Amino acid sequence: MVINTNLSAQSSANLLMQSEQQLSQSLQRLSSGSKINSPADDSAGLAVSMGLTAEMGENTAASDNVNDAISFNQTQDGYLQQVSNALDRMSELAVQSQDVTKSASDRSLYQQEFNTLANYVNNVATQSFNGVSLFDGADLYVTVDSGGDTFQNVGVNLATSTTYTTLADDSVATVSQAQSALTDVTNAISQLASDRANIGTNIETLTAYGNQLSTLNNNLSAANSQIMDVDVAQESTNYAKYNILVQTGTAMLAQANALPQSVLKLLS
């Protein structure tokens, strides 16, 4: 038996220190709700989690882009619904003006309303959404994922398309002019139907991209949770285990420190 080197006490102290470290880590996990509170806890897991978190942020930004593009298209369609109503009324006026029983005065009133509606269509062509023209015909390329891939949002041209702009020059003041105006209005209605169909396709496709991003982010969040989030039930069990080990380790260290005192009996 030796006095200068108490191997039992040293061993007990080392084990107690390890148990205290595990207990401290368990307390930190339970209080934070996270399994990784420093790179030393799981360096590889932290690196993967950071990548997943970054991708989720990028997907969220792409989702905002998609939702803004959907709002852009919905605004376009809201205007075009009113244009459709205007064109329908203009076609009625063109037909009514062809009534041989109508006087020149009657046609003059029809012409006034026809011009007002044509001007309204031309005014719609100048509208914008957050500073971006709604109807200049330009295609917009919407970023739809974290990789920067884009969707070609097909534009609508009211501003320079002759199908619409010629309406302002049409007249229903005479029967022959009304017949020509009706042809132009019918062509505009046909073009409008095609334009609204394109907008509907844009909205449908963008909605699918938005749903895809939402699903992807849910899955990424679940994967990140497996890495970062603490299992409270399991960690509570670990906490109880290490708490007991610390208590017993403290008691055993006290016993190991007391062992050299038995040497005094040999000296007495």
| CATH-derived architecture of the largest domain | Up-down Bundle
What is the fold named in CATH at topology level of the largest domain? f41 fragment of flagellin, N-terminal domain
Overall 3D form: rod-shaped
Number of helical stretches of at least 4 residues: 7
CATH class (first level) name of the largest domain: Mainly Alpha
Could you report the average pLDDT, rounded to the nearest whole number? 89
Strand content: under 5%
Supply the number of structural domains: 2
pLDDT under 50 segments (min length 5)? none
Q: State the end-to-end distance.
A: 16 Å
Q: How would a crystallographer describe the biggest sheet?
A: 2 strands, antiparallel
Q: What's the arrangement of strands in the largest beta sheet?
A: 1-2
Question: What brief labels describe this structure?
Answer:
mainly alpha, two-stranded antiparallel sheet, 4 strands, 268 residues, two-stranded antiparallel ribbon, 71% helix
